[in-house]
Amino acid sequence: MSAMTASFTVAPAHARATASIRRASAKRSGARAVRKSIRAEAVKEKTSTLNTTKSDAIFKAAQDILPGGVNSPVRAFKSVGGGPIVFESVKDAYAFDVDGNKYVDYVGSWGPAICGHANERVNAKLKAQIDKGTSFGAPCELENVLGQMVIDRVPSVEMVRFCNSGTEACLSVLRVMRAHTGRDKIIKFEGCYHGHADPFLVQAGSGVATLGLPDSPGVPKAATNTTLCAPYNDLDAVKKIFEENKGEIAGVILEPVVGNSGFIVPDKSFLEGLREVTTANGALLCFDEVMTGFRISKGCAQEYWGVTPDLTTMGKVIGGGMPVGAYGGKREIMEVVAPAGPMYQAGTLSGNPLAMVAGIETLEILGEDGAYEYMDKMTTKLINGILEAGKAAGHEVCGGNIRGMFGLFFCAGPVKNFADATNSDTDKFARWHRGMLEEGVYLAPSQYEAGFTGLKHTEEDIDFTIEAAKKVFARI
Ligand SMILES: Cc1ncc(COP(=O)(O)O)c(C=O)c1O
């Protein structure tokens, strides 16, 4: 995500600190950002038909209470300008704001709402569990049930450890890779986000591997100088890093469909090549499926691609809207984790019964016949309709979807890596985003984010969205 630095001031995804954005260039880009946000405000004032009086007041008050008015940076709408929308409630495919506006929601709490917001079945299980206790801090059978579901569905997973967020899953899996191999270095890819732990906050340089430099104040060089970066979809770059660091690389971690630089699809041969090169070098391959897990397919992206990593991280969907993360892999590797083995990792709320019941019910629903086919059908119709409308209105647009994950760039494409993604016209994206809000469609407030659909998005919602897109493309 380093490249986004040039024109962005906000991390692409949540904290997206990643969004390497950042900080290093924050000062430099600060003035530009202010100008941009004034521009966006002007756009909003001139054209807005959306009443955001209460949202604006709440967000203004929040800025005195929470840093930047939010608890995760991307929510502040900085990269699209205009104030953020403050939610009152969510249900099925819809979000309702404090001013009484309704939106078709394609963020879905950044992924977890795959069965629809406030799903009745998930809620019923949660309500029943609350009366039995919300946190045990002791073993409970629900952990076995969800753990076994994960093992049965995800090809790489023979043992699993639950934790509380995707960030925690990724930082823990990094420790597993190092503990298992006895090596320190890892390879990650430009534009892939793996949570906000120090070793992953690396400025991704262009070209071939570079030694990582900390991407945020507060991250010591020592924490990132074992993180090597390569461009996504560039197997030769990865091979070169392996050659230059023989016997030193613990593993390779990547998003098996990128959602954190916008929606970017890997070449299957790239994933297969990573599988080969890691095995040949005694290194581990980890798919970060925090976003793609149980979204791309019942057995996650690894099942979809037919490439089995050694380790997998999960989050979002697996908690059905409750805070959760998980990492798993081959038994032989996972047995390094305490107390089976010497690698320490723990959590007061890990495996808590609320997250477990929400996860179990969510995976039950997703396991029913036709779930992924339905999401595929709806999402393909959605993105094709949007792309057609954009092209018909004379815009350069490209994009696509896999099942319930999709994305759109304002450039001709193809977009194969983060550098390609930065060709997108982000000013136009900002106008598109605000325009869609005004039409009742809630999209992720950054060009560098994927969109999500779920089982509750209806054909009518998709048609409504395409009609909204036509109107907005005509005026941006
Ligand atoms: C691929 C990926 N990994 C890790 C994370 C971090 O997860 P969390 O926000 O739950 O800490 C995210 C969050 O969006 C993600 O998309």
Descriptive account of the structure:
The chain has 476 residues and is of the alpha/beta class. The protein has 2 domains: 35-117 and 370-475, Alpha-Beta Complex (Aspartate Aminotransferase, domain 1), CATH 3.90.1150.10; 120-366, Aspartate Aminotransferase, domain 2. The protein is 39% helix and 14% strand. It has 15 helices and 17 strands. The strands form 4 sheets. The chain has an 8-stranded mixed sheet with strand order 4-13-12-11-10-5-9-7, sandwiched between helices. Strands 1-2-3-16 form a 4-stranded mixed sheet. Strands 14-15-17 form a 3-stranded antiparallel sheet, with helices on one face. Strand 1 (87-91) and strand 2 (94-97) form a beta hairpin. Helix 3 packs antiparallel against helix 11. Mean pLDDT is 89; it is low at 1-46 and 204-213. The structure holds pyridoxal-5'-phosphate. Pyridoxal-5'-phosphate binds at residues 13-14, 110, 165-167, 170, 193-195, 255, 259-260, 288, 290-291, 315, 325. Its cofactor is pyridoxal 5'-phosphate. Keywords: Isomerase, Porphyrin biosynthesis, Pyridoxal phosphate. It comes from Micromonas pusilla (strain CCMP1545).
